[in-house]
Amino acid sequence: MAMSVKIISLTVATLGVISFIFGVVAENKKPASGTLIPGKGIVVCQYPADPTVALGYLSVAFLLASSIAGYFSLFYPYQQKSVPRDALFRSTSFSIFFNIALFTTGLAITLLVWPTVIEQIHLTRNVYHNLETACPTAKTGLLGGGAFLSLDSSLFWLVALMLAGNAREDYFDEIEENGDSVEALKNNA
């Protein structure tokens, strides 16, 4: 079955929205701090059970899936017609939105992975020798910011896909014009 632009667009958008939802829920479920349990020369931090780490990793996974689908959708040969990459990048607006999509994807991954890993470290390494420790958690707001950037990223991939469609049409129109002029020269000779 041949892939259509509508199916791929829907896939990119759906995966981006799921990533956004997981990121926002992870931010909302993150505990503010843990419970301090003092011991002999140590402090143990006990954190409530929460799905922050799992939701953070799921958000990253769906963001990666959305971005990979968005990237490959740009260069996919729709209707068995492939277009050289340099023909797509001749379009200035396509090049700009392609780079913005890459940048927002990278920034979203950073803002989702960083607090998720920090939160996982706090949950697993919860014994401190500093008796002044206040049971830290990952910085608040990063997961939510990463969630919004993952949604933005999927939208930029969709804009780049629309612009790739325009560049594709321009390329085939150019081929058709050049092909007609070559045929006309052959017929006149």
Automatic annotation (TrEMBL):
Pfam families: DUF1218. The chain crosses the membrane at residues 54-76, 96-118, 138-164. GO terms for cellular component: endomembrane system. The keyword Transmembrane helix applies. It is found in: Endomembrane system. It is a multi-pass membrane protein. The keyword Transmembrane helix applies. Keywords: Membrane, Signal, Transmembrane, Transmembrane helix. Belongs to the DESIGUAL family. This is Uncharacterized protein LOC111439668. It comes from Cucurbita moschata (Winter crookneck squash).
